[in-house]
Amino acid sequence: MAIAKAERLMNLALCLLGTRRPLSKRELRESIEAYVEAFGPGTGAAGGPEHTAQGSDDAFNRMFERDKDDLRELGLVIETVESLDGEIGYLARRDSNRLPPITLDAEEAAALGLAAKVWQQARLAGAASGALQKLRAAGLPEDVDPYEAHSALEPRIPVHEAAFEPLMLACRDRRPVIFEYRKATAARPEPRHVEPWALECWRGHWYLAGFDRDRGAERVFRLSRITGKVRSRAGRFTSPVPDVVTVRETVASWAGETADRSALIRLRSGAGYPLRAKATAVRELGDGWDELEIPYGHGLDAWLVEFGPDVVVEEPAELRADVVDRLRAVAKG
After folding, report:
1. Which of 81, 134, 221, 322 is geometrically suited to a Cys-Cys bond with 301, CB 3.0 to 4.6 A?
2. In terms of C-beta density within 10 A (0-12 exposed, 13-18 middle, 19 or more buried), how is residue 287 classed?
3. What is residue 155's predicted lDDT score, i.e. its pLDDT?
4. Residue 240 φ/ψ, nearest 5 degrees
5. What is the pLDDT at residue 303?
6. CA distances (Å), origin 213, targets 9, 174, 219, 233, 308
7. Closest by alpha carbon to 267, among 314, 311, 307, 324?
8. Distance between CA atoms of 255 and 26, rounded to whole angstroms?
9. What are the residues facing 79 on neighbouring strands?
10. Cα separation of 179 and 177, whole Å?
11. What are the tens digits of pLDDT across the range 42-58?
């Protein structure tokens, strides 16, 4: 089915690019073999009941509109032109769909090469290599080696989660997904229906930001907590996709990078040095305990749990309750 659709879209694009005048729906229907095979030559053809022909016309119109929208999403500029007699036609002018020549200097080519090296050990290694080959064919300077080492340090973005690739494709294609997700406070995973927006890497962990249909709000999911396969779902997004800056801010907030309040905790002496580094105030309590005031943002409860019995939350009460819930979930396995 995917191959058939790709071939149909390609033939439609070639028709629109190859014509010197706007083509009507009827002409496109008669010119593209996939449309003829599926719906026949169109209204006016002999040999079928009128209601059958009308149903065929409606089905063709729906498919044609979807195909036209898909081509526009892929970047093809399709013009809609109305003739003197009121008939609507379509064409894609070559001058409107011609890419400008690609010119890269040595510094720009080096930056692209570095970006490709970042992904060499990740799931996008093949795509990054293919992109550089296309740039070479489009005019990348021959005396520039994009893979040449420019530093003793070679950055890497490790991607070990099996959910990364299907989620990346779902974000690109704007396709809803369903997957099993285990919250840190839950003993077992539960299904989540999500409209994926973007993937972001924070502190070495990958996160998916998207719209959770079950909860009717934006949510962030850590990929390492996704269990089983990520499955695609038919249909379009029901919620608008924010710009990339907003998505990054959302991930930062849910990953515990944004703090708008303060929390008061007791920390065992000689323990929890990362907490001490973030503390805005420290007071010795005696008996082997210190009191710390630390910034409080989303994700702090998960971080505090990592220190086990060395940390006791004093306030706020909601943070204390969240930490207790997480510890109980860990105890249940």
Report:
1. 322
2. exposed
3. 54
4. -65, 145
5. 78
6. 31, 14, 10, 12, 34
7. 311
8. 54
9. 91
10. 7
11. 654 444 444 455 668 88
